[in-house]
Amino acid sequence: MDHAAYAGFNPVDNSIHGVVTYPDAWKLHYVEQAFETIDPTLAAAATSTSVIDWHRLKPTDDFQRVFRDAAEFGIGSTGLTIPVRGAYGDSGAFSVVRKCSEAEWKQQRAEIISGLQMRAANFHDRIMRQGRSMFFMRQPNLSAREKEVLQWVAAGKSQTDIGTILSISTRTVEVHLRSAREKLGALTTSHAVARAIGMEIIYPL
Amino acid sequence: MILVVDAINRHLHVDVLDEMFRLRARVFGDRLGWDVDIRDGREIDAFDALNPAYVIGLNDDYEVVACVRALQTTGPHMLSDVFSDILQGEPPLRSATLWESTRFCVDTDRLTMSGRGPGSVSRATCELMIGSLEFARESGIEDIITVIDPVMNRVLKRSDNAPCDYVGATVQMGKTKALAALLDCSEERIERVRKFAGITGDVFVDEKQFVKARAVRKAKAETRSDMSEKIIQYLTEQIDDASDVVELDAALALTEHMLEPGSDARIGHR
Known about the structure:
The structure holds two protein chains of two kinds. By secondary structure, chain A is an alpha+beta fold. Chain A is built from nine helices and five strands. Chain A has two domains: 3-134, 2-Layer Sandwich (Beta-Lactamase); 141-198, Winged helix-like DNA-binding domain superfamily/Winged helix DNA-binding domain (Arc Repressor Mutant, subunit A). Chain A has a five-stranded antiparallel β-sheet with strand order 2-1-5-4-3. In chain A, helix 7 (159-166) packs across helix 8. By secondary structure, chain B is of the alpha+beta class. Chain B folds into two domains: 2-197, Gcn5-related N-acetyltransferase (GNAT) (Aminopeptidase), CATH 3.40.630.30; 207-269, no CATH class. Chain B contains eight helices and nine strands. In chain B, strands 1-4-5-6-7-9-8 form a seven-stranded mixed β-sheet, sandwiched between helices. In chain B, strands 2-3 form a two-stranded antiparallel sheet. In chain B, a hairpin with a 2-residue loop joins strand 2 (38-39) and strand 3 (42-43). Chain A binds chain B through residues 44, 47-52, 56-57, 59-61, 82, 84-87, 110, 113-118, 120-122, 141-146, 168-169, 171-172, 175-176, 178-179, 181-183, and chain B through 6-9, 50-53, 70-76, 80, 87, 90-98, 138-143, 145, 164-165, 167, 182, 184, 244-247.
């Protein structure tokens, strides 16, 4: 991917956050032209809850207007936006963009989409935790099953082992782990175990 | 055929969604006796206001025969807010790659397409399962958690689409029981259901073609008797010639305007 952009809204302290990797010249032009008022990728993320591939927005005048200019700054128009919805009315949008052919895009999209979903949620969560009240509201609330699975990981058991021990499918172990990682703001299982021990959610062994 | 409607294209499918809400009222209210809120013959709840994605099954006449709704588990969803009894006081699973699917239903009275598949699970049911699994997979979703009743649970098992596990407990919900099942969105699962139902090839409808077909039918059905054949032909052509969704939108707006009672229908002046 060439660039990534994130925009988020925290309803508790009414703050708006933006992080982009775009070149300064484009950021300046974007603000000067007030593109944020017409940018269809932003508008779409505010309403849609499913992934928005930009090819669906391409026929609109506003998209053409913004991305014709973007092309002059070397920014492509193949991309997608992942809307993030949090449990406390918070919302965010994580976009990636790339200059490439449709065919190339289609293939790459399939490879990265799942990881992007996870990263978008993780990034959003980190930004939201910066707010003081949100930080306390977002303390991880793990289910008994999630704790149990993490505890067994800490004890060195594999996912297959854990499935056997708890009489659940390996896939279910994976689902509980993924949810536990997300609640703990961790990208990997080791990261989640470290956090869970640090927060005294599970016992160190 | 399967149509996916979300916040980006819902303005094109207002009438489809309306048909879907009526279908939900017939199935969940009339047939299954679920404790749902029905107004004006439509079943709409608070989660429909959150811009969920709908996977909608259509018959050969482009009528709505099946539907299901997808919500993100990171945000408000039914297991966290309505069906929490199933979780027995435990917090819900939350993951960006886990979707919750609810309101899965099929109109058994209206099935015109090749009827029943093997093992008495209809083709429409299988097509909807394939459509929702494929749509989820394309969105980067790895698993689905779905709130179902024991009947649906049997349908899943019979169509080689058995849940890989269950979360929480089976609890009484109104007249029926409800439980939460986990389904992975793997290629293998999709392949199994496709094989079971004998469905090969793309299940998704060409959206442009679908909108056109519905609009042409509507224009023909609603055309007032005082409108000349020429005007009808012109409107149909406009719809047919639309090369993208924006043009189609304009053509539909024009048709709508022309069909309004009292419009003077003078196309030459536009």
